[in-house]
Amino acid sequence: MAVEFVGIDPDTDRDHCPTVWADPEAQEILLQGWKPDAATQTTCEATSPAHGPVPGTEAIIRLPARMIPMIREACDAVERTHLR
Q: Each residue's pLDDT tens digit in the chain (84 positions)?
């Protein structure tokens, strides 16, 4: 797996560091973020049509909007590989 580091939250305190990676080979984006509180988790699960609780193998994470450029960059990296 050739994972490419894309970026880390520019306002990180290094103990809480949302991060973005791209894996062009697998055509996946990897995200590290904050876990939501229980109320947010419940709201997300309730507002997703035909979707129940989030399985134990998946997670809802929070990322600050300031990381959107990094997420776009990761999407572009994965998409470029797909277009080859």
A: 689 999 999 888 877 789 999 999 999 999 999 999 999 999 988 887 777 788 889 999 999 999 999 999 999 999 887 665
Instruction: State how far the Cα of 76 lies from the Cα of 2, in Å rounded to an integer.
Output: 16
DSSP of 12-65: --SSS--EEEEETTTTEEEEE-BPPPHHHHHHHHHHSTT--SPPTT----B--G
Domain boundaries, the chain: 4-83
- pTM score of the predicted model: 0.81
